C-alpha cells in the first residue's frame, strides 16, 4: 500500500475524527471497527497518494494557538435556572449558540439520532438547538461534516462548530486555516469511549429489563441530592413511557467512562489536554469553584469559560447580561480539572478490560469490569446533602 496516505499513521494515535475521508478525492478511505469497538481508517486501492488525508490529520498536524490577547478565565452560570438546567453545567453553550443563531449562524454539534447513534448535526433555530445541549460521553460521528462546513463557509454561511479539541483542530486543517464566519467552541475532554460499547450496554439493559431505551441523557441534574454525574433514561415498556434516573455508578457504560478505563487509546496521549486551544472559547465544569467564591458550590453547576480569542471575547460580551460571572485566574480554574493540565492517565486495568471485552460473554464482562462493588456506600454518600458532605470532608482532612 502506498505510503503517502493515512494508513501509515501509528494505530494507537488515531483520534477517530474522520477528517481524512472527508478530503479524499477518490473516496478511497472507509472505516473499520477494531476489537475494542473503535473505528479506524482503511485505505483501498483507489488511493492516488495525493497526501491530503495526512495534511488534515490533527494528530499529524497539531495546531499551536497564537493568542491575540491574554486568555480570560471566567466562572459563570446562566441567571435563568430553567435554561441552565437544560445544560450540563452553567448553561453557557445554550446562550452562546442562541446569540449566534440570532445573528444568522448555523450551529453544528453532537446529537443523538432516533437510534441513539451520536452524530454531529446542524441546527438553525432554537428548537433544533435543544438536542445539541448536554454532554454526551461518546465519540461523535463527524462523517462529511467538515466538508459540509467548508462548503457553507465558501457560500457565505456563518457556522458555529462545537466539538472535542481534536475535532476542532481537524476542522481548521480541512478549511485551510481561514476562519472568517466560523466560531469554534471546544471543551475540557477526558476522552471518548466507543459507540459500539454504548450500544452493547443499552442492549444489555433492554434485554435485562424487557424494555426499549428511547432516550439517554448524560449529566441529568437531580432536583435534590445525588451525584453531579447522573443520567436519565427514557424507556418504553408495555406500551408506556417511563423515566428512570440514576447515578453514574448504576449504569455500566457511564461507570466505565467515569473510571476512564474505556477510552480510545489516543485519548491517553492527547495533544490538547491543556489550555492551549485553537477554539475561540473553551467550556468546562468549574470544579472547586468554592476556592474562589462563597457565592456558589458544585450543586450550582457553574461553568468555566476560557476565552481564547478576540472573537470569543466579543461573543461572551454578547451574553454577559444573561449570566452571573466572576473573572478568575488560570491556576484556580484548572486546579481540579485535570484534562486542562494533562492527558487522562492510562490504567493497567484497561488492557485486561478490553481483552475480556473480546472474549467474555457481555454480561460476565459487565459484572467483572463495569459494576461497582458495595454500591450501597455510594448510595448513602450521595443521599447526604452536599453542604454536609463538604463539612465532613473538611473535618476528615484535618484528622
Describe the structure concisely for a colleague.
The chain has helices spanning 19-23, 52-56, 81-84, 92-101, 126-129, 145-154, 165-175, 195-209, 252-258, 310-319, 330-334, 349-359, 362-369, 375-383, 386-398; strands spanning 29-33, 39-43, 72-78, 106-112, 118-123, 159-162, 182-187, 212-220, 230-237, 240-247, 281-285, 303-307, 323-328. By secondary structure, the protein is an alpha+beta fold.
Please tag this protein with its features.
three-stranded antiparallel β-sheet, alpha+beta, 13 strands, 399 residues, 3 domains, 32% helix, globular, single chain, eight-stranded mixed β-sheet
What kind of oligomer do you see?
single chain
Q: Report the C-alpha radius of gyration, rounded.
A: 21 Å
String of helices and strands: HEEHEHHEEHHEHEHEEEHEEHEHHHHH
Mean pLDDT: 93
- The low-confidence runs, each spanning 5 or more residues with pLDDT under 50, are none
Main beta sheet:
8 strands, mixed
β-strand percent reads 15-25%
What's the domain count? 3
The helix/strand class is alpha+beta
- Report, as a whole number of angstroms, the end-to-end distance: 64 Å
Number of strands: 13
Numbering strands along the chain, what is their spatial order in the largest sheet?
5-4-6-7-11-12-3-13
- Helix percent reads 25-40%
Shape: globular
